[in-house]
Amino acid sequence: MANPFRSLPSVSQLLESPPLKRLSETLNQQVVVDSVREFLDGVRDRMGKASESIEVPSPTELANRIAAWFHSERRDLLVPVINGTGVLLHTGLGRAPLAPSAIQRIQEIASGYSSLELDLHSGERGQRAKIVERILRELTGCEAAAVANNNAAATMLALSSVAAGKEVIVSRGQLIEIGGSYRLPEVMECAGCKLREVGTTNKTHLADYEQAINENTGAILRVHPSNFQVVGFTETPALVELVELAHRHELPLIDDVGSGALIDFAEIGLLDEPVVGESIKKGADLVLFSGDKLVGGPQSGIAIGKKVYIERILKNPLMRAMRVDKLTLAGLQTTLGLYHKREDALREIPILNMLTTPLANLQFRANKFIGQIQYLTGIKSAEAVQEQSMLGGGSLPTQRISTWCASIQPSTLTLDQFSQKLREHDPAVMGRISQGRFLLDFRTIPPRLDAALAGAFETLFVS
Fold it and tell me: Is 201 helix (H, G, I), strand (E, B) or coil?
């Protein structure tokens, strides 16, 4: 019986083909050789597992396939995406977009040297946390601040710095797990603390906390649920009650508020999101929150509170491993500065601007888009429909925001094929499939991208 593998062309034969020759002229030849061998190994593997004989492509066709595969494999994985999903803080799509002024500031700092750890007044070495500390003091009333690379890091640093080797009291109903397998008990273990859970899933009383306090207690931790909600017969002590209890026993009260609202979102119709400054006013010793969710800045975790505890965090050896770089601080400083004037924040910070965009504006844009695409041959039908957006990112899990979408039915492709084709376009377009329709939500699409969105459809679904 003839060996089927003998029908495959050799590596050297393939390298002489025009498409692979062109690759070798622009790239290191060994990279191309290794890629050809990898592709052929895959072909041999499929041939070996096949129950029937597989027809081997001609050397020319095989070379073209290898070149196409090579370009596909080396395609940039981090690319811009038009977010039509309706999820404003989409973790998979990078959460909050940055304000134009923050982007400009990052570019300015990235293009040269900066005063990252230098006090220009004294000429001596400075502390990089000072870059945003003054603004955070002004916005929240805290004494001091520290910044880590995300809120999980801020939580771990806080626990490690104030309660290592000791028990930390937490309500059972607040032992959260957030996307990506972030589990509070495991974070606490990594921080060197011992979990002391109290109460039940739906009810925890102040007396439960008090009865758990002993000589080995290091802190009381309150955690905002963020991505879920317990309804019905529920009870939990107010923050002021926990603060009074903690301070009566000379313990720090740590308040992890999660998403980190610097303004009262109830003013724009979104309820139950704690305001960072309120936690400070009510006496929390440390308040922890994300910088890249409701704040609208770059990925970061922010710890604010009493100076004595922030200093412990800054001196913690883990801080160096979890600190942020100059670009994050540049973007965060500029974003925070916009909150000095509420109208500036609502206008300039994309997440806040999207939340406050009037429905009539979204309806107009959806209808205009429909008028541009409804006659394309790849589109069976398209109409503007009123729908609901989600905040996402572990914020306000039960609340929806009214919006307008383009509801599209493709003419020949399935909805999954249609969605994939848009995802693989440049720029990539992400929507959502709901009730047998493909939806593009205009609350999460900036107006400046409307033309690019229409252009993607005109390219992919030719009229």
Answer: coil
Task: Read off the pLDDT of residues 186-214 as tens digits, 9 standing for 90 and up.
Answer: 888 888 999 999 988 788 999 999 999 99
Q: pLDDT per residue over 147-159, tens digit each?
A: 999 998 999 999 9
Same domain for 158 and 205, yes or no, is yes
pLDDT band at 230 (very low <50, low <70, confident <90, very high): low
Q: Is residue 174, in this structure, part of any structural domain at all?
A: yes
Residues 6+ apart with CB under 8 A from 443: 86, 88, 354, 357, 362, 389, 401, 403, 404
Distance CA 87, CA 392 (A): 6
* Domain enclosing residue 389, as ranges: 81-91+356-460
- Same domain? 331 vs 368: no
What's the CA gap between 35 and 241, in Å, rounded?
A: 64
- Are 360 and 341 members of one domain? no
Claim to verify: residue 195 and residue 317 sit in the same structural domain:
yes
Report the relative pairing of strands 428-430 and 432-434 from DSSP bridges: unpaired
| Whole-Å CA distances, 339 to 72, 139, 217, 268, 411 | 43, 8, 37, 16, 47
74 domain residue, yes or no? no
pTM: 0.86
